[in-house]
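ZP: hey, is the beta-D-glucopyranose complex queued? I don't see it on the tracker
AM: it wasn't, my bad. submitting now with these inputs:
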Amino acid sequence: MNRIIILLCCITVAFSSCTSKKQEEVKQTDSLTISKTNWGKVDQKDVFLYTLANANGMKVSITNYGGIVTSILTKDKNDSLANVVLGFDSLSLYQKPNPYFGALVGRYANRIGKGKFKLEGKEYKLAINNGENALHGGLAGFDKRVWDASELYTKDSVALQLTYTSVDMEEGYPGTLKSTVTYVLNDANELKIYYNAETDKPTVINLTNHSYFNLTGGKESNLNHQVTIFADSITPVDAGLITTGKIETVKGTAFDFTTPHTIGERIGNVEGGYDHNFILSKAKGTYGPVAEVLDTTSGRFLQMFSTEPGVQFYSGNFLDGTITGHNGIVYQKHWGMCLEAQHYPDSPNKPNFPTVVLNPGEKYYQLTVYKFGVKQ
Ligand code: BGC
């Protein structure tokens, strides 16, 4: 843990010393750039769309409204670029209800049963926004806040650093929480997401990114995507999608993705489709492999790594064709899949799950990486 913190400090120092204040497109190295365009205003605060680009033509667009990743352009096996995440072209569309496309989710990603939990003997009641439960940080979670943004440059990467201070009792959560999320792009086609946070009172925290991937570039649903998840067990859920507290092996079930399977192959055996937290096999507290996704037609390949203990694999079950996104594409059921690095859902009410409590003086840290490539 200490080594990770020291490494992160080095990275932050390296970035800070190279920070550029320029507002228009800046060529920092021959290959890596950030451009910035005005996207409008929310709560009297300026909102921008930043595009990080690398030498291979990969482009990641991120807005400081909700820290949302709005598009990721990657090449297929014929060198053809396409956007591989669901999203919109304008700020106003993100302000309408949508299922957290690309969003930076907090203070607590995923569900907290009945929207309440006890911490140090005191009960906290959260904003309820999903049946009788709290989902993804409440009615106005981190995905609906304007973050302060700065562009950072090093020799071999470009980054967007976002900070947001969530006040004590915002959406019912105790403690003033200062979060910093840094999106980094390099020439290895890695999108790295560093999360850091500190609190002034004990609180609970579970941050994630909620990108919906479609490696076909939106040509068809994700049912033919081949998925591997490095997890031997899951946390099963009840009818309200709240974890039961049990841990179940994936062996012999439709949840066994320890070898590649298409999403569509066994989804019929999973009521409602995949929307479950997988417990990663890597050693607790370590950075390691999470999942791999391959679209055999385009050859696009995604590898995911994280320091988190779990990943929510959500197969876009609630998408229903009522939302139209980039390039006029209608987002039908299973049009995008999420791989959300996280702690287990409803951990504040499940004492047998790894703790999500953050105390004053402690540092919350997460690194999650999405690496894009092609397989011929
Ligand atoms: C959850 C789904 C939910 C979706 C959009 C996912 O993280 O697991 O149940 O529908 O987010 O809110």
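AM: back. Residues 99-100, 110, 135-136, 241, 275, 312, 314, 318, 338, 340 surround beta-D-glucopyranose (CB under 6 Å).
ZP: great, adding it to the tracker
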